[in-house]
Structure formats: C-alpha cells, structure tokens
C-alpha cells in the first residue's frame, strides 16, 4: 500500500478546502495583494488550478497530514522520498 494518496478536491468540505488553500498561499509566500481580492482571490485562483490539474491535494497516511502541492513539488517530493527510503533514512 502506498503511503500517499491524492485526494480529489470535491471530496473535501468547502471550509476544509479553503483552509488548505490558504495554508498553501501562506507557505508559498504569495503576495495576497496581487489578486486585488486578498486571500480570497488566491483561493479562487487555486481552485481553478486544481480544476486544471495543475495542483494536487496529497494525504500522507502515515503522518495523517494533507497538503496542497504543485505537480513539480509532488514529483520532487516523490523522488526525495524514494531516495530516503533507498538510503534507509525513512
């Protein structure tokens, strides 16, 4: 069984999805004045990116954590994790 699963955005309650997206905006250091609508503007933009499959929501079954990631972050994270497992660091 894989440690990570992708979670479809439609499976999350709206307030949970918004909180995940707000955490992503904060973690990425986005300027919330860029959209003209503050944080809510970024949440709308990120929902559109989820619909276009430019972002994913990944859940770590072991740590019971859920994160929003770009596809590049997900691919990099997957490679980094595989490297750690090969080295016995996991």
TrEMBL record:
Task: Cite the InterPro entries for this sequence.
Answer: UPF0270 (IPR010648), YehU-like_sf (IPR036685)
Name of a matching Pfam family: UPF0270
Record's protein name: YheU family protein
Question: According to the UniProt entry, where is the signal peptide?
Answer: none
In the record, the note on similarity to other proteins reads: Belongs to the UPF0270 family.
Q: What is the lineage of its organism?
A: Bacteria, Pseudomonadati, Pseudomonadota, Gammaproteobacteria, Oceanospirillales
Q: Which domain of life is it from?
A: Bacteria
The protein's organism comes out as Vreelandella alkaliphila
């Amino acid at each position: 069984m894989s440690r990570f699963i992708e979670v479809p955005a439609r499976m999350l309650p709206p307030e949970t999805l918004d909180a995940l997206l707000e955490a992503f905006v904060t973690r990425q250091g986005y300027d919330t004045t860029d959209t003209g609508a503050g944080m809510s503007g970024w949440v709308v933009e990120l929902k559109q990116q989820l619909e276009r499959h430019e972002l994913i929501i990944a859940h770590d079954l072991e740590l019971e954590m859920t994160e929003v990631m770009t596809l590049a972050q997900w691919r990099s994270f997957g490679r980094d994790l595989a490297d750690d497992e090969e080295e016995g660091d996991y």
